[in-house]
Design brief:
single chain, 499 residues, alpha/beta, Aminopeptidase, Glucose Oxidase, domain 1, 2 domains, 15-stranded mixed beta sheet, two-stranded antiparallel ribbon, 13 helices, 30% helix, binds zinc ion
Amino acid sequence: MRVLHALFVTLALPAALSSAAARPVTEADLRKHIEILASDDFEGRAPGTEGERKTLDYLRNAWSKAGVKAGAADGSWLQPVEFVKRGPKTADVQFYARGEKIRVVGDELLLIGRESEYQREKLPAVFVGHGVNAAGEVNADVSGKLVFVLSDSAEFLPRELRQMRARREKLLKAGAEGVIAISGEQFNYPAYRRALMSRPIVWAEKDLAVGVEGVASPQYMVALVTAAGGDWDKMRAAAQAADYGGQTLQLSADLSVTSDVRRFTSSNIIGKLPGRKPSTGAIVFMGHWDHLGICRPEGEPDRICNGAVDNASGMAVITEVARRLARQRHDRDIYFIGTTAEESGLWGAYAFAANPVVPLDQIKAVFNIDTIAIAPRGSKVAIIGRGKTSFDPDIERVAQKLGRKIEPSTDANAFLQRQDGWALMQKGVASFMVGGSFADLGKLDAFLKGPYHGPEDEVTADLQLGGAAEDSDLHVALGQYFANARKFPPKKPEKGTGG
Ligand SMILES: [Zn+2]
């Protein structure tokens, strides 16, 4: 069998293969997948939901029909990733000033506990201004305390600590028991509240939740500090100094907080086309399968964020690229990865980068495919990641061979950190997004200001698939080129391949 099969491959396949591989991807090929992945039945593909199960089932079937093999550990298709998701339920709060109960007139305080039930008595409270000084050090003793911190940035803060998220991390590492952000102008109370109410998903390995955290409005701080006999305006003004050292409020708090805490497992899906010369490395096509799920409150007419463009379109492209690449043998292993939880922070991609199925230094190139159905046929080809490696001329050559024009600017790099390839790029892996969607930033902007991340990103008659089909062909060609050990890398032939 084996020998006969090999003979058959050698003698009969090349002609049949090249014609099959060359059949261009059509808009109908892509639409068929997008209509299913972005249907209401898949409920917006949120990680940890029935929509995830349906999505992964669909992709596993489509990929294995396309000729792709399971590519995760132990012959499985799935790489599990652990997540935590928290949301507020109830909070009873009693403050004390110098040991006496005080009454605070205000309700703009929202608290979430690390565990579903959190209770503490006489927890000391401290106001720390922005929380760090100009040198980037935590500015007060916060250990075991409930910390109130201004969320707005300040001139004196080091660049990397201007975001509240980064300062929060500093305070947690310094041992804070609770962190309450005071909303400001950059992120006001309703916006903060909405963000916390939306139950953001966090990769369990990056979970830094304190005992309790939350947000208070400046109005609430006025009420609290006044009730404690202080002057909020003075405290706030003092906190603008670069050498501010925080202020104990002679305040303590009894907290009884219940929260909605859910720990769950989601998965990256990983397929593989084994190469003839796996020692020459691997290339990766990547795209996120997840989207925002049920994203509007009860009572709204359309509650599902279907994510047709973002990123059912990318998964459709990967599936059709895989089908065509599977009809030829390649030197290198080719991996296809559908990542989870991109929408909440590229988590699936980070999890893959931390636990790759092939050592990262063997991955020659990663092509991420996201939000691809925006540009019409004939669009120029932009490269997100342009200038970061020496591979731009190779990518351009492949695109030009297909008659595509090149967008020479690096404008598209504005999206570098907003896509899954970033997780791998930070670990030194050459990662790109290549195609038409990011060549016309005006069109992209219209999408971002329009249907993006709303229920309107769904399958409609004017879904733009011409450019996506063309970009699919481009990715087939990129796969053929980059998986060919003799063509690439041309300048640095690998040891032992003799090419
Ligand atoms: Zn998105």
